[in-house]
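Homework help board

Subject: predicted structure for assignment chain

Our instructor gave us this sequence and asked us to write out the predicted structure in token form, then describe one feature. I got the tokens but I'm not sure how to describe them. Can anyone check?
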Amino acid sequence: MTSLHPRLVAVTDRIIERSKVTRHAYLTRIEDAQGQFPARSALSCANLAHGSAGFEGQDKISIRATQQPNIGIVSAYNEMLSAHAPYRNFSDIIKQAAREAGGIAQFAGGVPAMCDGITQGNAGMELSLFSREIVAMSTAIALTHNMFDAALCLGICDKIVPGLLIGALQFGHLPTIFVPAGPMTSGLPNDEKSKIRQQFAIGAIGREVLLDSEARAYHGHGTCTFYGTANSNQLLMEIMGLHLPGAAFVHPYTPLRDALTAEAARRVLQLTAQGSNYTPIGRLINEKTIVNGIVALLATGGSTNHTLHLVAIARAAGIVIDWNDFDDLSRSVPLLAKIYPNGKSDINHYHAAGGMAFLTRTLLEAGLLNDDVTTVAGTRLSSHYTHEPALVNNQLLWIDGARESHNKAVLRSTAEPFQLDGGLRLVQGPLGRGVIKISAVAPKHRNITAPAIVFDSQEGVQAAFNRGDLERDCVVVVRFQGARANGMPELHQLTPLLGVLQDKGFSVALVTDGRMSGASGKVPAVIHLSPEALLDGPISKVRSGDIITLDAEAGRLDVNEAEWACRVDEKPIIHPNQNGLGFGRELFSVFRAAALPAELGASVFGAIPNEGIV
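My token output:
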């Protein structure tokens, strides 16, 4: 048996110790809820009549009898997201499978699902991060009818999966499985798409060429194939044991995908309190599970958004993690995958190279995952998640997964990694604490000293770029982009601009209290700087011309000491969001006012009970 890596043990143990009080309080709450099983028997006749009125035929008879377990389906289906469009017919597959397995399934509710790819650079992006909270609350509304013995959550993309999981954890007494729909087939190569975006940024090509490029990249149903937050979500749900093994990256509209969807219904019925294998999600998600999620994220160069989302997810289960945990693990977890923007390949290439089964196996062999965890497939990761699904004579089976990578340009073992650490750093100094993903940043660009050029919006950066004002070594500082200021939109349009400057030979970096998403690329970017400017963060005091030093390897972000010492006692500049009206942003003003700092997940739900944080 492989010994666990000492740093994995140390980080896991300190999270367990740090979370003792809050985790105990959470488990007490779900134990109280467990005593109400089966849920429907506690309802009055009027309650039950209302809850079954939408059923027809035998399903109506079965649910009124309160004997057969009932699955609540919570779905993020819509036609705006290519990844979620395949969910249209999943409910029918689930209901039929549930009937055949002696249960019932009921569409409990839909949750909103917005697409950052559509709202990038537009007013709607200011609603994006807080849509996570709306999804969580919508999940709670769907499940609060107390008609269910288990749940299936159908969601894939950026804020939707974290929101579904946060909401599901409020009903931690229910067994829950997450049901993915899979990625779209590969289209225009990601590196070619990136080059065309940079050509458009400098005016070398027109809008029609750019639109044709984007349409060839995002061309059909399924998850976008680059390794951003959506595919990071799927990797996390699998490594944390909330997917069936190997379910994450199977294409939609295939027999294997449909078989996995049906099996999710059958399996969750086996996990209910009526059986002998009761597996509530609130116990499945624990400190070791959360650490496994961080490790897998680091090992694959996953989305920086999860330095927010995993914190918020953990807190929903009474578990307290911080950026020190990410940073410490990153220094021991090797980078094993090269998926765009960390490489040229896409998520389909990763899956073909061995995917999740190989990744899980090699991390387990290196002692970098906690194996003794409960999953929806059973106990121990090694018993289930080193296998991959296959249809054999129309029967769904799990076979032994790859023991060697099929493509070492995309996926490698811990014995021959792409680099020795996970490429995520905690960066701190006089300007606060932030994170940087350096797995896609060449070593020669990881250390920069240059004058700051300060902006209060990404539109200001675009205008300066167009004027040629950025044609020099510089650290672009974009402030008032935190959750309190404007909802922390992704500053995605800065990536091609700064990439152009770097390609011209200038030393450039970005420092911001905003987000850059899973598409953070080759330019060094310190993001999520906390506290944010509107919480009196030091970033609000930075002036153009201040000399800033970023040492990404050492995790330092410094400013020239002489001038900064004279500025420490200055009152911060107050720059409230002046464009927060229209496009629904007024409805989110209460969210902006309540948002916690980025390192606490930028959540609006406040401190977890008994934590002592206000």
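Reply (TA_rk): Your tokens look well-formed. For the description, you could write something like this. The mean pLDDT is 91. That's the kind of observation they're looking for.
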